[in-house]
Amino acid sequence: DQQVKQNSPSLSVQEGRISILNCDYTNSMFDYFLWYKKYPAEGPTFLISISSIKDKNEDGRFTVFLNKSAKHLSLHIVPSQPGDSAVYFCAASGGATNKLIFGTGTLLAVQP
Amino acid sequence: EPEVTQTPSHQVTQMGQEVILRCVPISNHLYFYWYRQILGQKVEFLVSFYNNEISEKSEIFDDQFSVERPDGSNFTLKIRSTKLEDSAMYFCASSERGAGPNQPQHFGDGTRLSIL
Fold first, then answer.
1. For the residues of A56-93, what is the DSSP string, one character each?
2. Using the beta-carbon criterion (under 8 Å), do A99 and B33 form an inter-chain contact?
C-alpha cells in the first residue's frame, strides 16, 4: 500500500535553518492531511493538518503546504530547533473513511 | 492537556495465548481507533469504533481480533490466539468526531507486544 509516500528517510538541518519535509500521495479521494511527530518510545503527536480546500496552513513555526495538482504536501519548520529532532509522519484520510494512511516517516536531525 | 493512555507499555506473551491491550481515550472523544506498527514498517490502521460498534476494519483485523468498550472510559483490543507475526507496537487513538478538517486523531504511547 503506497498511497502515501515519504521518499526521504532522513534529513539533517542546522539549528535556526528551515526544515522541509515532503510527502506525496496517489489517492485523489484524500481530503484531509496531517503531520505527526514521533519521539522514540512515544506515540505519534499531532502537529498540524490541512484540508484539501486549502493550500496552506500555519501554526507558529510550522507551515503545511498542499499542492493538489501535484498530489504533494510539505511541512516547513522555521526556525528549526534541536528539540524538533524526531521522526515526522505524513498521514491522509478521505472519502467515506476515517482511517489514516501513514507514510513511512522521515527522521529529522537538527544539529546545534 | 488531555491525553490517550495505554496499558501495559510492554506485554510479553506466549504464542497461542490471549492478550488484551487497554486504552483510555480522551474523555470527550467519540471515535476510537487501533493501529499497529511492525518494527521497520508503516503505522497501519486496524479498526475504528463509534457508538459501540465497529465502523471500519482492515484486512489485518481478522476473527482473532476483537474490540470492546466495556465501560464509559476503557477501550480494549483483544487478540484471541496470538501468533509470532502479531509482535508489534499497538497504538490506540481517539478523535472528538469523525475525520475531516480540525478532527485530528490523538495517539497514546503504545503497547509493545512481543510474542514468544
1. EEEETTEEEEEETTTTEEEEEESS--GGG-EEEEEEEE
2. yes
